[in-house]
Amino acid sequence: MIESRRLLLREWRESDLEVFAAMGADEKVMEHFPSTLTPAQSAEFVARIRQHFVKCGYGLWAVECRNGPPFIGFVGLMQVGFDAPFTPAVEIGWRLAREAWGRGYASEAASAALRSAFESLELDEVVSFTVPANTRSWKVMERIGMRRSPADDFDHPRLPEGDPLRRHVLYRMRALDWSLASEPVRD
Ligand SMILES: CC(C)(COP(=O)(O)OP(=O)(O)OC[C@H]1O[C@@H](n2cnc3c(N)ncnc32)[C@H](O)[C@@H]1OP(=O)(O)O)[C@@H](O)C(=O)NCCC(=O)NCCS
Q1: Number of folded domains in the chain?
Q2: Is the dihedral of CA 120, 121, 126, 129 positive or negative?
Q3: Which residue numbers in the chain have pLDDT < 50?
Q4: Tens digit of pLDDT for each residue in 88-128?
Q5: Is the CB of 107 under 6 A from ligand 1?
Q6: N or C end: fewer C-beta atoms under 10 angstroms in the chain?
Q7: What is the CATH classification number for the domain harbouring 48?
Q8: Cα(161) to centroid of ligand 1, in Å?
């Protein structure tokens, strides 16, 4: 369990699945992914998240508001599951229910996850990536102090040539960058 000012990053519960399935069916939430998810695909994804926790001891945590909804989505760390010039690597990622956007929750949870990555798990580096059109996502990367290097842009190997979602931007943060980051970034 990871705590931040307004949020808890915790293990998944069965009761999270209904909201998570609704998120997977929401076209706005899934706008920058190849498709929305059926309830069965969402449940399968949560099963994979749980397996990752068992294997690595960290993963995509379920996010709970301390004084609000018990589940608003996930934020966390995951081993990149494909080969690319920057792998092997651990990525930080997020997906929140639409009602939870625009409140700073993703950035707050992501900063807490980065703290865990560098101060508890002692990782050397964390990366994050998205399609250029996913402005909300790369803004989170910038807010938490990650930096883009255009030379690291890449084509996602799981998407076919010509797919409009294939091109990705890569952001990085090294342990050294974290230790030098200002307190507001780290809070
Ligand atoms: C990506 C995603 C998590 C970003 O959510 P978000 O709400 O835009 O990001 P944050 O939680 O950091 O909130 C930042 C916004 O909250 C506002 N905000 C309001 N109150 C705030 C507070 N107390 N503290 C900080 N920010 C606050 C900020 O001004 C900012 O708004 P702006 O972008 O209009 O300037 C969300 O859009 C999402 O789940 N998208 C679908 C899934 C997805 O694409 N995931 C990424 C795949 S790569």
Answers
A1: 1
A2: negative
A3: 184, 186-187
A4: 999 999 999 999 999 999 999 999 999 999 999 999 999 99
A5: yes
A6: N
A7: 3.40.630.30
A8: 30
